[in-house]
Amino acid sequence: MAPIQGLDSLSNALATLAQLSTSSSSLDGVPTDLEASVRFAGSLLTQAAGVLLRLPQEVIAQAVVIFTRFWIGPEGGSLAIYSAKDISAASVYLTAKLSFQPTSPRSVLNVYSFLLSKEASPLWFVNPNGPGVQPAPETYYLSEGTYQSERLVLLRMEATILRTLGFQIRVIIPHTIALTYLQTMNATSPALAKRIFEHLSAALLSPQLLYVTHQPNALAVAAIYLGAREEGVKLADGEWWKVFDVDREELGFLVVAMRSMNGFAMAEKDKWKTQPIPLIADDVMEELEKKRASDGD
C-alpha cells in the first residue's frame, strides 16, 4: 500500500525544541518535578470534570491537550502566577463551547467546587484521605456570591488561554484515527479497541507531553502496536506502520513512553500520598518555600 495522503488535515501544532527546553514556571523557580506533578494532577482534574459534565471523550481529550499546551515554553503560563485548577476549568469550558455539547459556566464551576472540596472530593490528589461516607453538601456548595466571582475568573482565564496560545486551539485527537487504521488492516476487535483507547487516554497524562510532541497519526499507530501485542492480535505483515507515515524510531519511543505511564502514575500517587498536590498558585509557592527550607537544612 502507498502511504496515506492528506495527513496535514489531521495534524496538530507541535511544541518546538525551544519551548520544551524551558517553561515559564521553571523561569519562576518552580522545580521540574513539582511542575510535572501539578500538570499531571491538573490533567486528571480536567478528565474527571469532563466525565461529570458528561462530555464526549473527544472533547475531554481536547481540553486536556489545551490545558497541557498552556504551560509549555517561556511564553506559556507559569504555575507561580496561574492556578492549575482555574486553567483546567477554563480549558473544559472553552473546549465544550466549541463542540456540539457546550456547557454553562455554572455547571462547570459546580463540578469543580465538588472535585476540589477537601472533604467531599473523590480525587486522591485533592483529598488523600478520601471523602467521608456521606460528604456534607455544604462542603462543596457554591453560593451565588462565590459563583459570580468564580465566573469572572473563569471567563478571564478563558481569554488568557486564547491569548497565550495565539488562538491556536484546534486539536485533532488520535482515537478515531486509530479505529480507521484498524479497519484498514481488517483488525477490528472490541477488546483491542478498548485497550488502544486506554493507552491513548493514559498518554494524555504523559510527563513526556506526547500529545504536544507527536502527531495524532503516530500516537494512533503506537497505541495500535502496543495494544495488539498485549491482546495477541496479529496485524499486517511487514513494517505496516510506515504505511501510516510513522518510522521505527518514533514508534519505539512512543511505545516505551506509553508503557511507562502506569509506573509514572503509581510513583506520583506514592509521592503525594500524605498531602494534596498544589493546584492553586499560592499553594505551589508555599510548596516551593517548604522545599527550599528543607534543602537549606
From TrEMBL:
Which GO biological process categories is it annotated with? regulation of transcription by RNA polymerase II
The domain of life is Eukaryota
Q: What GO molecular function annotations does the UniProt record carry, in alphabetical order?
A: cyclin-dependent protein serine/threonine kinase regulator activity
| Name of the protein in question | Cyclin N-terminal domain-containing protein
UniProt xrefs under InterPro entries:
Cyclin-like_sf (IPR036915), Cyclin/Ssn8 (IPR043198)
